[in-house]
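Request:
Um, any thoughts?
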Amino acid sequence: MRSVIPRIQKSILKSSLLYGTMLSLSGGFLISVPAASADEAADNNDRTAWLLEEITVTARKREEGLQSTPIAISAFTGEGLEYRGVTDVGEIAAFTPNLSFQNNPSFGGASNSAAIYIRGVGQKEFLPTTEPGVGLYVDGVYIARSVGGILDLVDVERIEVLKGPQGTLFGRNTIGGAISITTKKPHEEFAGKLSATYGTDNRFDLKASVNLPLADNFYSNFAVASLTQDGYVTRDDGIDLGDDDTLTGRASFLLTPSEDLEIQLSVEGTRDRENGPALTLIGINYAGPIDPETPPMATIHNVGANIAAGGAPMPCALPGATLNLAVPGCYDDRYVFDGEQRTAGTAPAFSRSDFWAANLNITWDINETLTFKSITAYRNLDSTFARDGDHSPHRISQFLDFLDQEQFTQEFQLLGTSLEGRLNWILGAYYFTEDGNNVNELDFTVSRFRSGGLYDNENIAAFAQATYDVTDQFHVTAGLRYTDETKKFTPDQIIHQNYFAGTGDPLLDAPFLQAGQRILPNLEKELSFDELDPYLNLSYDVNDDLMVYVSYSEGFKSGGFSQRVFPPIVPPFTAPPGTPDIELIPTFDPEFATVYELGFKYAGLDNRLRLNGAVFYTDYTDMQVQVFTSVAPITKNAGAATIKGFELETQFIPAEGWFVEAGLGYLDAGYDEIDFATTFVDKNNRLDRVSDWTLSAAVSKEIYLDGNGSLTPRVDWSYRSEFDNDAFNTPEIRQEGYHLVNANITWRNEMETIALVGGVKNLSNEKYLITGIIGDAFQSFEGLFDRGREWYVTARFSF
């Protein structure tokens, strides 16, 4: 545990330095907003006014208005997301400042693996021995694994993006922030909705939901969706990558035995059957790995191919040299199909996952000032995925993963008000446990082996937070969370076959590389961490329209195990003689972030303008950096960084029927220190997956058709500046800044029970990387590009 008081004292000094900057930003922005005349203002019948209705959020575990909650939140209602044409949670990154939400398979083949970064802090790895940096929550339940984390939005009430560490109330691994999804609750009215969408590449989505009262105090809600689409990258054997075949459903029940007691039970499940991510080969690194000690898989293969063809023991190609196309066994640029949606892989490619969950939420109003809540949840994930990492008929890098996970969480909350309503407080206890198995079957140039193992994690926490109204305008919030975490890992890693056995090669035919050799000891290793995270927030209501706040927060992300290891760690060959077996299993420690923030929230012009902003300073220490020091990428605590920035968001109704929204985010992120000898990462490198600028804007106009309903055309624009996909800042997988334009037009009937939508995403057919992957040992550069321009038509009917 670290000292808390000195850090809180520093927050006051840091915040005072930020205050002048924040005032100049807010003042300049407000002056630039044009005022509309009274006769142009939207009246009570204006159908766009609902877009600026106060959103109720639960960022502080109690229901509050968005504009009165003194933390940086981007919040969207389900109706608002539908209005924007959003279908899965990852799409909110286009209009949320300083949020990156990628589908990143890393070295696995899962077609749905979330890599989320908020304000430059996150995690791209899917392994269960490595934790995400941004917490993902559904109905208050933490989703531990990133596989399956790009959730399809069916019957969603709202999404809240909480920025900065949420260590007090959300706790586990929310060092960068949290994304909280709330589904619709059953209610007393019979209602429902049906929708069908058809679009590019035979996209065919069907969604249905119905709210069904079962008794006077017993209600139910059912939702189901089928989502299918053909892939857009075709392998030479006919398999189309990047396809979608998802079936998902949810049933929710609400029982209210009395006015004081509410019991909600929900059960949900998802079934995915796809061919895997649409990765292609961008290029081959003929120069060899960055780490000179790493065996160059492609070069070794190509030397062998030349020898087999009767040539000299040389690679098929050298930097700047002409390819030796006469050698059919070479791995070279003949498999790089620049600009084509094509790949030549032959190894198995599929992504299959089954997930189901059950949640039980109980809310009991003990009296007018005291409420008890219980959140109980169970989740089960069973997934298998495989892909060809070299995208060729050869065996350079081929991956097969089995990932099973079970998790159980229990949270208790006691919420109250005291001192005649001036003190609002919450006490809580949290328990999390998960276990499972991740088996990685890997087939590389030099060896075929099994990696992975069994994992078992447990987290116990107690937390408290209180807000005291010093005056009607000045409010002080303080919180504290104590976390105790235990993690266990049992490697089950063994070499199946050494392809160079019997050659006598001193490196590739070494004794510790033979079939049957354990890569890591088959022992259970345990790690324990405990941490105290404080939080302090001061807010002031300048008037009915403007609130300003300053905050200090700390967060930490748990340490873990490096489960990807090769070559084997065996004394005395790759470890010092006499090293105890348990110490051969590599681990890494937690990382920490301390954030100072100054923000404001403004709602004015008769509630036709909303403008929120914040500036922040992040001290990021003991960074968990993914590095390549051999065949496998591993995680090490090897750096520290400073991340500074700001963000602004606005929504505006300038005149009746018009709706304008915009967002602006800026990040100044850089290493303060980095261990080059360990990581081969230069201190001047950019942090991976971090853009300096994120901008967005959208405008829509509702046109009334005199009793024939309405037409609403909408145009969305977003921009993301250059970012690197790896810590080495590899140019081949760097994404330059790019613009995206989406457009749609919606017709609604007069009763707003029928809607027809026609739209185009990526109107300019921008080609950009969703994610990029470098396999240093494999010498391959891979990219997952966007599908390109997509059109769609949707019909919706509600009752």
